[in-house]
Amino acid sequence: MNTDVLLPLRTTGSGVPLFCVHPLSGLGWCYAGLVPYLGRRPLYCLQARRRPPAPDLPAIVAGYIARIREVRPAGPYQLMGWSAGGSIAHAVACGLQREGADVGFLGLLDSFPSTGRDPHPVDPERDRLDLARTIASDLGAHPGPDDPEGDAASVLRRLARDSGLGERLLTELVETALGTRAAVRSALPGTFRGDVLHLEAARESRGTLTPRAWARHIDGRLDVRRVDCRHVDMMRPGPLSVIGPILAAELACRGPG
Fold first, then answer.
1. pLDDT band at 193 (very low <50, low <70, confident <90, very high)
2. Domain over 6-116+186-252 is classified CATH 3.40.50.1820
3. Is 226 exposed, middle or buried (0-12, 13-18, 19+ CB in 10 A)?
4. Among positive and negative, which fits the CA dihedral 176, 199, 209, 63?
5. Cis preceding linkage at 145, omega within 30
6. H-helix or E-strand spanning residue 20
7. Which residue of 43, 85, 209, 238 is surrounded by the most CB atoms within 10 Å?
8. At how many degrees (to 10) do helices 124-138 and 152-163 cross?
9. What is the pTM of this model?
10. The Thioesterase domain covers which part of the protein (predicted)?
11. Sign of torsion, CA 77 2 87 115?
């Protein structure tokens, strides 16, 4: 499994590349299902740096911008992120604009802005278990909620056995995810100058939290569309059959692919 910060999913073709920012798991493999929908457009993923992990969101953003510019030194740029990756993609887009770059597309998949506060976890071990399950799901394993092996170490040990990946790597992914979440939660979003597409998982209930919370962090139009799925399923084949064509159409409006 390629865990480099920049993961190329398709480097050939034409048009402006789409850069997808990892969700909380830190892995970008989940975006591979987009390839058939994007025509000839190159597709890259940004994955979390593990050794050493980035200390805060500005460091994450600076590192990702550097990797993006290695592939594409000048704009326009097209960015997308799912879940926590949406918040990071928004921050990267703002960072590129501060450097004078043209960001032609920003897509957020069921992502919500931070309030700038990172509450201390009530149960750190439960946090690790939840993130271990998230990483297992990203890798195609599905430990159930009533799994008797109810601790992070057991989930990762079994995942290492089933996936062929080392327990050390998987443990690093969990710790990196904890750091990423804290970095995103602790930073107030900037303001992106341009239109934003938000795809919302319609089968989730978040009370008063809605995609419209992004409006104060966007100087442009916020286009919200609902997808009939749960948050965790957005990169699965069914939801992708809806999301892929939407993204393809929006990207085509902003340049050839």
1. very high
2. yes
3. middle
4. positive
5. no
6. strand 18-21
7. 85
8. 20
9. 0.90
10. 17-236
11. negative
